[in-house]
Amino acid sequence: MADHAWVGPKQTSVLIVDDLPIVRLALQRILTKAGYRCLEAEDVAGALALLAADGIDLILCDIQMPAASGLDLVRAIQDRIPDISVVMVSSLEDTETAIECLQQGAFGYVLKPFQPREILVQVNSALRRRMLEIAYRDREAQLARKVREQTLEIRQSREEIALRLISASEHRDNETGMHVRRIGLYAAELVRLLGWSELAVETIESAAPMHDIGKIGVPDAILQKPAALTPDEWVTMKMHTTMGATILKGSTVPFIQMGARIALGHHEKWDGSGYPFGLREQEIPIEARITSLLDVYDAVSNRRHYKEPWPEHQVIQVIREGAGVHFDPDLVELFLPNLDRFREILAAHPNDPLPGFTGL
Asked: What is the pLDDT of residues 207-220, one digit of tens each?
C-alpha cells in the first residue's frame, strides 16, 4: 500500500514464507478467501527478493526452515518494521524462538496446527497495530518538524532584533555591518570548540554582535575621528561599555542578557588593566573574554578608517603576546591551533554592508 495505512484486505499484500508447499497453499486459501493479495516464497532468500521487488504490507513466516530461519528474516528486515508487519507461524516447541522474534520486532505468532480464524485474527491485529505505529511515528515526525520550524522562527526573530539594535549604532560608526556579523560567527565557532550546548552557541552568536551597541551614545566627532583621540575623548569613548549595558539591561531574553554582559565587559583585560571596572581573570564573564579576543582579531585583520589590515603573522603575534595580559590564556591556547576556522569566516564575510538590511 502506498500510504502504509491499512484500509482493508483488498488493498493489502501478504507474503507467505514456508518451505512446505502444503502449508503455503493452506495459508493462501485462508487469506485469499478473506480478500488479501498473496505472494509466496519457500525460503528467506526468496522472501527478500520479493520484498525488494514488490510492495508487501505483512509477512506470514514459518520459524523453522532449512538454511535461514524465520528469525533470520525478522532480523534482516528489522529496519523496515513497522512499514512491514510480521506474524510468525510456530510449532509448539518453537515458542521460545517465537518470543525472540517478538523481541526483534515481529507483531505476533500463530501456533501449529492453526485454525483459519486464528490466522485472520493475528493478521488483522498485526495490520492494525502496524497502522497505529506508523500513525504515531508520523505524528512524532510532524511534531519534530514543527519544533524545528518554531525554533528557526525564534532564532530568526532573535537575529532580527539584534540586527535592528546594532543598526542604530552601526550607522554612526565607520565599522561595517560585516564586522558585527563576523564577531557573532567567530564567537559561535569558539564556544563550539569549548563544548558549549547548541542553544548556548546560538545565544552567543546573537549576543556578541551587540558588544559595541553603546557607541550610539558617543558623539560623532569622537566616533568618526580619523586621528588619535585626546585623553578626554578617550574617557568619553570608554563610556560606550556602560552605555551599552544600560541599553540592554533589564531584559528577560537570554541573548540580550548575555549581550549586556558582553557590552559591559569586552574591554576588560585578563591582567586587570582594562575598563570600565578593571576586572581581572575569572572576574570577567567568559562571554566577554571571548568577545574581547575575537574583536581584536577582527579589528587588526581588517581595514579600518584609521588603518590597513595587518598581515596574519602580525595578528598572531599580537594575540600570542596578549595571552595572560589582555586575553584569557586558555582561550588563546584554543583559538590559535584552530585559526583556520576563523580565517574561513573572515574570508567568507568581507567588509560589505549587511545585505538587504537598511536599519529602522
From this structure: 998 898 888 888 87
The predicted structure's pLDDT at residue 162: 64
d(CA 225, CA 172): 12
pLDDT in tens, 228-280: 888 888 898 999 999 999 988 888 888 889 999 999 999 999 999 999 999 99
Neighbours of 156 (CB within 10 A): 10
Domain ranges across the chain: 9-142, 171-348
What angle (nearest 5°) sits at the alpha carbon of residue 26, between those of residues 21 and 31? 125
Rounded to an integer, what distance in angstroms lies between the CA atom of residue 75 and that of residue 106? 9
Cβ-based neighbours of 295, under 8 Å, separated by 6 or more: 183, 211, 266
pLDDT at 159: 65
Say if residues 39 and 15 touch (Cβ distance below 8 Å): yes
- pTM, full prediction: 0.57
Which helix H or strand E contains 39, and what residues bound it?
strand 37-41
Judge whether 349 and 302 are in contact, CB under 8 Å.
Answer: no
Mean pLDDT of 169-197: 80
Question: Long-range contacts of range 118-121, CB-CB < 8 Å, 24 or more positions apart?
Answer: 119/27, 119/30, 119/31, 119/60, 120/30, 120/31, 120/34
Q: Give the up-direction half-sphere exposure of residue 107: CA atoms within 13 A in the CB hemisphere.
A: 27
Eight-state DSSP code of residue 307: B
Q: Residue 89: enclosing H or E segment and its boundaries?
A: strand 85-90
Residue that is written with C-alpha cell 583585560 in the block = 269
Pick the CATH number of 171-348 from 3.30.9.10, 1.10.3210.10, 3.30.450.20, 3.40.30.10: 1.10.3210.10
Measured CA to CA, the distance from residue 352 to residue 271 in angstroms comes to: 35
